[in-house]
């Protein structure tokens, strides 16, 4: 069996002998050993006693090394080269995964900070949420038009199947924005730590998907930690708390509708996660526009004038926060998909838990929100409970397999 080598070998092909049945014409054993070393260095699947072909489109002859044995030093050199190549590939993959997680965290932090600053100055969450979705549309559509990313082809029937998913996604996004505008960022993320609890309960009731008892018990620290943090939260408002809880139910509904849609559809299941999120963003933008105009439309202009205080600089700053929050909202969700595709689900769950810790700490530093010891302990218990739940769920899922 013959295997082609890298064309670069033609540069030294004159060193190889045109041989038949191991008869070398006019070349020494040292030269033959050197030739074997070159083949070993540039051919990836090299093993002993194989016939190697060195093709080159401008070469008159094919030079070959036929059925030659390999000495111990050659074998050792080959093994070392393979180990070096494996380490290089592993190092590059680790760097790629680390880059995804870094961007996921950084984009999420930028979104939360810019979004909170904007809502503090311009308290119109429905309008802000719609603009953030619209910025995502403006970002992704040119990628499709310029063929930087392959555009999905979805018939109208599939669009109708995705409408419930888009509606749940819209509700979850607007509820999160309302909560972030009403309470501290740290408290919103602590309450959103209850999403696994809502997800497990909804899966049992709707999808009839039941987990082992230890999985449910692992959620008790999450519930207890959120209750403790809520009772001791200095910025607590019922609007912020209920909006955060509503986002948990909405995103859980989005996950369930997505599973149902994937089972009943071939187009949505064949789409990449990034394109599926883009399609949901477009549908959510269309769904949210009339609602935002109905609820806040008449008050937008007076509210904008009051927020700007007649200053052009303030207006530019608000627009910058608005566009920044929209762009990084889309980017952090997209990078999260890439991170999920690059690592094991349990690694992604741990990373998502640590993401909330990083966001909470960063928001406390930036906005200098006061926090009590009881609130800090409750938040830590809730976040730690999410990690415990992820590990327990993974353990029993592997045990069942």
UniProtKB/TrEMBL annotation:
Keyword Membrane: yes
GO cellular component, one term: membrane
Domain Sugar phosphate transporter residues, every copy: 95-390
Sorted UniProt keywords: Membrane, Transmembrane, Transmembrane helix
InterPro entries assigned: EmrE-like, Sugar_P_trans_dom, TPT_transporter
Bilayer topology annotation: Multi-pass membrane protein
Coiled-coil ranges (or none): none
Localization in the cell: Membrane
Entry's transmembrane regions: 97-114, 126-146, 210-229, 235-253, 274-294, 314-332, 377-396
Top-rank taxon, per record: Eukaryota
Identification of the protein by name: Sugar phosphate transporter domain-containing protein
